[in-house]
Amino acid sequence: MSDSNKKECLTNDRSLSRRRFVQMAGIITASHIFLQNKSFAGAQETIGVKSKESVDLVKRLISADGGGNAQWASKLLENAFDCKKSLLSVRYVEVRQFERLIVKKKPGDLKSWDWTLAIQAAIDMAEANGLVCVLPPGILRITAPLQMGSNSKLYISPQTTVLKDFNSLNTYSGTVMNKGGDAGVYNVVIFGGGVIKSNTGRVGKHVVFFNSSFITVHGLKIRNTYSDWTTKFQNCNHVLIYGNDTDVCSDQVLTDGWHFKGKSNKIVIANNRVRTGDDCIAFTQEVSVVDEIGDIEDVTIVNNVLDTAQSSLIKLHVRAGINAAIRRISVMDSSGESGRINKGGFAFYFSDDALSNNISDIKVLGLTGRCARSGDYFGRIVGCSDIHIENLVVYNPFRGLLVESSSRVSLERLTIADLRGAGLKISSGITIQNVDGFLISNACISGASQHGIQLGSPGKPATNGVVSGGTVFNSASTGIRLTNANGVTVENVTSYGNRNGIVEDVGSYNNRVVSNDVKYNSNTAISVIGLKSEAKGNVGFNGN
């Protein structure tokens, strides 16, 4: 988008108050969207954070969701820092204390040694004595999972690589996992700046926790995931994923980054880099019985840099027939690229396959996306309710944003530039269909290969909505198209450089097109044909 176009978008920001939106569209939006954020200074004093990192985390969490996860997450982060400080007092367990347990197949070839028993013995001793287990520098090859019990603390130094030389496709298996399979543990810290990776071709997960609570993963480098998810947290609560660098080093499907399932709640994912072949951050309810133990709730995702080859930066998915929900998810200040390979890719994918609104109360504030060769919609919201997307910036997508079979959806200050779809992949910048109750406020959409904003489609109405403010320009067909739309107001929009400005099509009625600027469109400025529809006070249209 050129600088002049960006300036045009900014100068045409005619804000619509949420109160006005509620009056016009009759929409009750997601409960936490309108929470009044606590005073940061007051919250900081109450929580008692000490480090600069914790202060920053608390500030971000308060901005993202009002601070519901701030207190426990900052305490877990402080605990990780305290664990690191304890190493200075030489009060820890070092793996070399158990050197007799290292299997030295070739005495001079350190890469062939098996450190599994030695590391596990050190973890167990540290756990029993309330100390940190410290791994020595070098490449430490292991042939079975490292199992963490309650109150375990594992330090992987920046000079250390844990090399997984076994397959871990089993549900309860990973490079690092909780003891007891599905029995669960609590108060576990894994930290330090070192690397966890798989030997060539060794498939399976790296970090696995079931039915566990108060888990911190901080500062790790995770590499080389083959043919499976990188992590799996199922039925876990109070989990902090902070400051990690994950790169699966592959474009393979299934290689998800941070993945949560089942009854998982109170989750914070902050300040991470994630580069995957599949979903970067995923919350799913997909397996009957297993995932129906409870809902995923109260998740905050802030300040992450994400990159996916062919799937989603952020995915929320409930499969049809699953009796579980995903709700109260907040995403803020993240960015990423989707579609490194030409098989698809979404910035975000929120889908309840049964269209039963089991995904609800979702907020995305500040997401910047770049599309490489993405072959699908940049964003997709299907079967959801109470969704608020704000300050979304999309560059060079193949297709735009689709909202379908959903209710109470708010889209504010979205910038979507230069859609590349053609043929069967032709797309509008924003498509709203089979949606009741929506707001599109102050959008800036340029270069759509079809319509800038499409409201409704044959058999899929768009009802009780407002499009207010913003700019739509250089669309191949129409700036704003109303097809099978009713009870919709389009006001204060600047629509120019399109083939048509604002057009109401067959099946639409009872709509208002008021106070818009539709000068400089090449064909039709405004066309309103529906019963009880009206056009008033529009600049550049003589039929008012």
Automatic annotation (TrEMBL):
SMART domains: PbH1
E.C. code: 5.1.3.37
Keyword set, alphabetical order: Alginate biosynthesis, Isomerase
Gene3D superfamilies xrefs: Single-stranded right-handed beta-helix, Pectin lyase-like
Pathway where it operates: Glycan biosynthesis; alginate biosynthesis
Pfam family, one: Beta_helix
Record flagged with keyword Zinc-finger: no
Catalytic activity field: [(1->4)-beta-D-mannuronosyl](n) = [alginate](n)
Domain (Right handed beta helix) ranges: 427-532
SUPFAM superfamilies listed in its UniProt record: Pectin lyase-like
Family classification: Belongs to the D-mannuronate C5-epimerase family.
Entry protein name: mannuronan 5-epimerase
Source species taxonomy: Bacteria, Pseudomonadati, Pseudomonadota, Gammaproteobacteria, Pseudomonadales
